[in-house]
Structures are given as C-alpha cells and as structure tokens.
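Moderator note: this is an archived Q&A kept for reference. The question asked for a predicted structure of one protein chain; the sequence and the answer are reproduced below.
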Amino acid sequence: MKQTPLEQWILEKTRINERSREALEEYQIQQLVKTLHYAKDKSRYYKRKLEKFDIDAIKTISDFHAIPFTYPEDIKKMSTDFLCVSEKEIKRIVTLNTSGTSGEEKRIYFTEEDLNQTIDFFRHGMKCLTDSSDRVLVLLPGRADGSIGDLLKKALALSDIECIVHGVLKDPDEVEQIIIENRISCIVGIPMQILYFSRLKSEIFGKFIKKVLLSTDYVPDVLIRELERRFQCAVFNHYGMTEMGYGGGVECQALAGYHLREGDLYFEIIDPLTGEPVKDGQYGEVVFTTFRRQAMPLIRYRTGDRARFSPKQCSCKTFLRTMDKVTGRLTNKVVFSNSQEIQLRELDEIILKYGEVLDYTAAYSETDTLVICLTLLNGNSFAKLQEEIIKQIRSRWKVHVIISWKPDSRTLNITNSMRKRNIINLQKGGGKDG
C-alpha cells in the first residue's frame, strides 16, 4: 500500500523532524497562536471577537478550545470585517449563495499567496491518484483565474500531467467527445453529475475512465459502490469547501477516509449541541482553523458537516489523521410532526441503487408528505420503480410519499452548479434546507 504523498509534503512544509502526532501538534499550536495574533491585529471582526483573550497564554490544544467559534452567518453579515489586507491585494473573491437570496451571500477573499497554498495542496493531493500517464478531465468551474478548476490545472501542470478543464457538466455528448479525443483516464467532478454521466454514457465511461475524484458535495455510498463494481474504477473522495481554500483532505490508495491538510489547517470534531470536542470514532460537526491565510483567516469555523476522526491508523501507515467520509450536512434532513427523521443520505441509498434513475429531488410539505421527483431516461420503468421505492420508504418511516418523474432532456436537468444538494422545504415560509 502506497503511503499518502501528503505525509512527506507536510513533513517538509512544517519542518518537523519526526513522524509523530506530538511534533505535529506542537507545530499546530504555534501556528494557531500566530493566526490568532494576526487576525486580532488585522481583522475588525476578530479584533472584537478576541478582545478579552490572552493569546500568549495558549500553550495547548485544550487552551485553544476556549476560543469562540466563527459561524457562516458571521461571514454573511460582515464579510469585509474579516479582511486582513487591502482591497488591492485581493486576487479572487468567491460569492457563495446557498439559498438564492442576496441577503444570505457569503464572500470569501483570497490573495495570490492564499491561492498558491491551494495549488501546492492540489499538486501533492492529486499524486494520491494520478501519475504522468494520466489525462485528467475536470468537470468543475475553471474559466476564471483562481477558480477551483484553474487551480487544479496549474497544480497538475507542475507534475507534467495533462489536464482539461471543461466546467460543470451540461452537455454529456460534448463531454463524451472530449474523453474519446483526449483519451481521458481520470475525471474530477461533482458526485451526482458523475453518476449521471456514467449511467448515460456507460460504454464510454467503462472503456476510458479508470480513476474518479469526487468533490464539492457529500458522496453517497451507493454511488461509490456502483463506480467501483460496474466500471472497476478507483473512486477517491476529496473533502473541501471554499472557506478552507477549496482543499481540506483527500483519500490515499487505501480509500478509507481523507488524510487532512494538517500543515495548513487545524481540524476539530465537536458535539454540535455542546460545542465540546468528541472522541475519535464519534460523529460530530467539522470545525477548522486556517494557518497563514492572508486575506481572510478563519478561526474555529463551524462547517455544518457531519464526520468523525477514525480511531484506527490508515493501512498506508501514515501518522496523519484520517477523517472518515463526510456523511452530509447536519441540517440536511426532514423531521416530521411525529418526530420521525429522514436524512438525505438515507434516501440516496434507497433511490440511487436503481440504474434507471439519473437524478432525483426530494422535498417535504406541511402535510407530512415526502415529495420525490425522479429523472429517468424514459418512463417505461416508472410504475415499477414508484411501487418499490414507496414500499421501501414506508417500511422505514410512517410518512405519505408522492413520486413523479420527468424525462432526461440531455441538456442536463441535474443541478449544474456548485450548490450542495438538500431536501427542499415546501412548507409556508420555509427555506430550501430541510
């Protein structure tokens, strides 16, 4: 088993002399203190937030846990207050609009050096799955300088790996031609879009694609199993978000969880109700703090993602931490009036196992009704699918279920943006998140 390339990269980056958690933790404490001083000195937001804290008194990780959390709502309300540099030093601004309303936009700022840190991580992270023989197709935004696709292309160029950045999947026929003409062996993309394409273009996918990197959203287990078994693909998962600088962690060849970007980020898993750290092996909310981020450092930022640290060492024998695959958003669920709770990931395992399903949406209404719309290549199998899916849902939850279907348009009816999937709230006054 090949050891994750991230280990040697982090050893060189941190300049620690031994492969030990203790040495890495000592480095991280030093970086956390530097980040706190920098943010308190440069950022209006953190100057207020950290006013009463004696930063130099922080000697241990436990001491650091006394620092208050940063919330996504804080960025939405006062993103410019986070800035630590002048506007002329900003290389890229990313606007995250998760609800479709301008009042809930988050703006994330990067300097050129911030983006170079991400390129450095991508360069070494992609070595987990690619080599010079690979030709990579990136189905993520990449036209703008500093976008995730652009950074990936620059990172792969440093390893002499050919990379084509196409953008999010919109025209499957066009992507099929790119794969054939360029003999693409590896695809990087959004999980549901990769599933869609593999089912629509299964012959081409099976012939050319040997490696897949799934990113930007929660990855259903059923999707991984299908790509592995049907196409004999090695399916790697990447964990990251724009607030992290796009990259947070990536799986090694063991395919057993992410090894984290521990030279640039400090990760925690906390109890989402109490805010206290949980033990390794227990699920909780992912929290992170940035190191050396110039434009917009984030301190104890609550992601809303559900995951856990693995209590076991990875079979690649690295001393780096392993985070088990994120299981989705903590809020990505629906709770009915009878207190029954349905998670999106649970619906995925029921619905996506059917190969006829190219995509689906789920919503819930005030009448405790689960509303599902399937995207199918054709409707010949709908009656049987409807019966089986309703039966399986009703066997687990006592809810009313309505299922409809729509044909695939070949111009991509699935979400062709970077917005994460969720269960839509149809209740009066409800938002999009369940």
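Archived answer notes: The chain has 13 helices and 19 strands.
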